[in-house]
Amino acid sequence: MKLEKNKWTLKHLRQHLQFAVDLELWTIPFYMSAMFSIIDRSSKAFQLIQSIVNQEMLHLQLASNVSNVFGHCPNFSAPKYEGDKIPHLNFRLDTPDPRKKFYPASAEIGPLDEKRINSMCLVEYPEYSTGHEPALRDTVSEYGSIGDFYDAVEFGAKQLANDIQGGINQVDFFAAFYRDFPQLTVQDSGEGGFAQVALLIDAIRDQGEGRKSNELIKKAFRNTADDTYPKESHYDKFYQIREDRLPPTYPLKQVGTYTEDDKNLQKILVNNFNFLLNALQSLFSGGSRDDFLPVMVSIGGNITKCWKNGVLPKFS
Amino acid sequence: MLEERRSSKVQLTSDHSVIEPRIQERREKDMSSSSKTVFRLHPTMNFARFGTSQEYYLSPETSAGLPIEGGGDTTGGLPIKAGTENDVITSGDLRDADGNLKRQAARFRIFAYDFQAPERYPEGGDIEVVPGQKLADGRIVTNIVWTVHLANKKANAYNVVNSEGLGAYADGKVPQLRNPEEYGTVDSPARLRKLMIDAGPRTIDSAQGGSVEFNAQTVASYSDGCGGIREQVDYPQSFPSDNYDELFQPCGSLDSLGEIRTDEKGRLLVLSAFGRTAATYDEYGDPIPLTGDLNNAGWFDDAADGPVSATLVFDNGDVEEAFGAWVVCGDPAYAPQIRNIVSVWDDVYDSWIRNLQLQPEIYDRNSGGFNEHYKPSFRSDIFPIFRAPLLQRWTANLPELAIRAHEAVDAITESDDPSKTIMAGLTYIRNPNQEKELNVGVPLMPLSLGEAGSSFLAVSKTQYFFLEQWDKNRFEPGSGPKLGPGEYLDMASLSNCLGGRYVPGIEVSYPVRQPDMYYMDRQTSGSGPFRVKPKSLDYAKATREKPFLGGGWIPLHDETDGLEPGDVSKFMAIPWQTDYNSCSIHQTSINTAGTETATGSPLTLYWSWPSQRPDAVYPSSEVVQGVLPRQVWSIRGPGTLTTDPKSAATFQKPLQAVKQWDQIGIILQDTVIEGDYPADFYLEVGSQLPIEGQSVYSVAAWPFNANPPSATNSEV
């Protein structure tokens, strides 16, 4: 349903920002699992997904920073990976509807296969320019693309610029990886702060989900360190993988044949992921960075260990 | 004075020609019995290091960065105070009263083994032998005659080819010769006479003690194999000043390759020279310019290497020859406790494991590879790999993520379930068996530059095997089979040196991985492992008319008759300072002849030798209230400022490196730094370079990039 008079409330904006965090967080285990299922770590697919995973972590940081300056410390709860449901996105609203092209798709954790790569393309499906104003809706489930969603968030943020309190629990782990990015946090309040908020939102849109078709990522938002293809958007990268032959992945055992050791690997991952969520919660509430960093790195190890033993990674 | 001393002690033998056969006969007889006592020098390879002072300290006898039993918080790798058994140096011991950097003497000891073929490794059970000591068989050692022969063949050697490494010697090829304007081959007498620095051998004994230099003023001498010392006045000594009327010698005359002396227990100390260089002049009367990092024509330095031998004399008249060792004189250790992820030990051990059946229970060539049932020991085989990353932050500008991750790696204990640790699945470890991964950067570690032809470093195959076994929960807690004290010295000495990425390296280069450099018959000869095989040299045949040494051993050419003096250091850069200076931070394409093969941005900079060649450091003088200051470049101050980050942390003009290498600071653990610092800091001390000015505070957080080739290339 369209928002009445295009008038945003702080509650409404904060709800949207929480959903932004939810969505960015959702992508990370999903993409990481597919990435670490690839046996050849030098493969182009591995490299491309890794660059996207890194940027999704950046997006999670940016969305959380924006949320914090609007007075909402985001919640980090375990994402759900069920059926073909990608949180808060309704692809039927996209024009053209991409679901036929990217079929079959699955939003369940799995190796890099046809279903997963289709889902990745769907998540990152470009926002086609309609020339219209952003669709402002009551519920975030009514956005067709993330680009559309972030357009709306930016619109709301501008209306509520006076509520911005810069410098609140701002986190930055990525500045050295984006040497041309002016600033990855929001330090100013009010109108000045809005320009910084808009910059962060633009980066998320431009790098991945919401970029307009056939455009390269803006120079300011390109990774300057560890991305072999820094100009390309997430969608373009996933689409390349989809068009190429998918690389071999670790074979999976039947769930019924899991040993106790196998189940233990899943348990370790679940526990560590919970620890990561708590560390994120603490981090964006002004807590220590020390706990967060090692456990974030460990998650990759836990996923790999699952795949190497033929076990499906599990996060909750 | 020297001649006087010599005349009082030298015992000349009447017939030299019978010496070698007698030694050989004795050995053969001994080997025919089921068990016998053999004597071996340890460390098998040791390192004397440059300084500018007459004073010195001793080579470390512990392994860099590792805990020392009974050593408290202080970790291994520290040099030892001269005149002591194992008192480690403190920050006050680095320089003499005039501020000159002290040299590091390489200390050699003799150990007795009860040898029975076939030998296993580790053997253990060895005991040190010093004069006055009574052996189990009742014999008492009365004297030890030490002989060392140092030479520098760099200027006559082949070029270092930084994109090819050992491959430059493959398929019967050799690289181009250095100083090609000097006509001839590597064995041409004219080239050898002009380009090789060779003082000849020098011998001293424990009974007389004293010291002797490797210079033109002392006479060549060698052990006669019967307990005496023989002078060789006809030895064709050769120094640059013999062949050039005028030389540019910015730090003093290059007139010595070092010195030997005995300590109070009769052990041998080998001191390096003073890190000096000499250059010829061009036709305009200017010193030949330094035009590169590795192969500067017209230049000499006083690095050297060569065999170390010992003859033991007993009270019953017996004389026995110990299996010898090798000494290398070269760069200072600027960060002695910062452990290399891959050290020379890791490379040499890996080579012996996979090529020479060192421990068939780990790797058996006959059954096709690593034994998947083998259980490495956590403390000896796994933990050193976990400890090394932790220490990198003290010499490189690591990002916070890396520092925290490395702390988590170091915190892993033998009681941890590998699956629950940050190292689970070896997700972030570059697999040396997967060649393609050698060009994959983040997230694979180590994230420093790799060896010739590949972008990034990988642990050795044996290190990786140990990690794999650990990851599969197949490991033993504790330290595993105990090394004997001599064997421990071998390991410790090599583990304190730069491995993995040589190009060409700091102490030694790629050839250390070659089996034919060593005694390969250790299971029957009694030599023990890791022992460089010296070429048999008959000094009695030396004449002034022609050079005594030749071009010498080269790798991959099936040369198995051993190495001559100078055959290790000749693979290093000339002069050494230009390579040390330039090997700070680079784009990966430096390893691949300019071709981009690495993942990520081609402009991103990585560390070349981060453990051994400090890049970014924390000066101890800037620590306030236990809080670390900003990092500064280790090489800084006037002449170091650059507009391109890839040239940071270096003297911009190589001649400055030749002149000022001794002013660079040393990284030591806070526990041996005078002052009150937190226990786990490793800080820079003793630097004579300034801590003020624009060139100092320009250390960027990693990742940081080189400037693009042209500003017009940047896209908008």
Instruction: Tally the beta strands of chain A.
Output: 0
Number of helices of chain A: 8
Cα distance, first to last residue of chain A?
A: 32 Å
**Estimated radius of gyration of chain B:** 25 Å
Structural class of chain B: alpha+beta
Query: Quick one: biggest sheet of chain B?
Result: 7 strands, mixed
Shape of chain B: globular
Mean pLDDT of chain B, to the nearest integer, reads 93
What integer is the average pLDDT of chain A?
Answer: 91
Overall helicity of chain A: 40-55%
Query: Tally the helices of chain B: what do you get?
Result: 12
Beta-strand percentage range of chain B? 15-25%
Topology:
The complex is a heterodimer of chains A (316) and B (716).
Chain A (H helix, E strand, L loop, with lengths): L9 H27 L7 H26 L44 H10 L22 H14 L30 H18 L26 H10 L16 H24 L8 H17 L8
Helix pairs in contact in A: 1-2, 1-4, 2-5, 2-6, 3-6, 4-5, 7-8
Chain B lengths: L1 H8 L9 H14 L3 E7 L2 E5 L6 E3 L44 E13 L11 E3 L11 E12 L36 H7 L1 E9 L5 E5 L4 E4 L5 E4 L7 H4 L12 E7 L5 E4 L5 E3 L19 E3 L2 E11 L4 E3 L3 E6 L13 H12 L7 E2 L4 E2 L7 H14 L8 H11 L50 H11 L13 H11 L26 H4 L50 H7 L2 E2 L19 E2 L8 E2 L14 E2 L20 H7 L5 E4 L12 E4 L31
Parallel strand pairs in B: 2-17, 3-4
Antiparallel strand pairs in B: 1-4, 4-5, 4-12, 6-7, 6-15, 8-11, 9-10, 11-12, 13-14, 15-16, 15-17, 18-19, 20-21, 22-23, 24-25
Protein described:
Chain A is mainly alpha-helical and 316 residues long. Chain A has helices at 10-36, 44-69, 114-123, 146-159, 190-207, 234-243, 260-283, 292-308. Chain A is globular. By secondary structure, chain B is α+β, with helices and mostly antiparallel strands. Chain B contains twelve helices and 25 strands. In chain B, the strands form eight sheets. In chain B, strands 1, 3, 4, 5, 8, 11 and 12 form a seven-stranded mixed sheet that branches. In chain B, strands 2, 6, 7, 15, 16 and 17 form a six-stranded mixed sheet that branches. In chain B, a hairpin with a 5-residue loop joins strand 11 and strand 12 (268-271). Chain B is globular. Chain B starts with a helix and ends in a 31-residue tail after the last strand. Chains A and B meet through helix 7 and helix 8 of A and helix 7 of B.
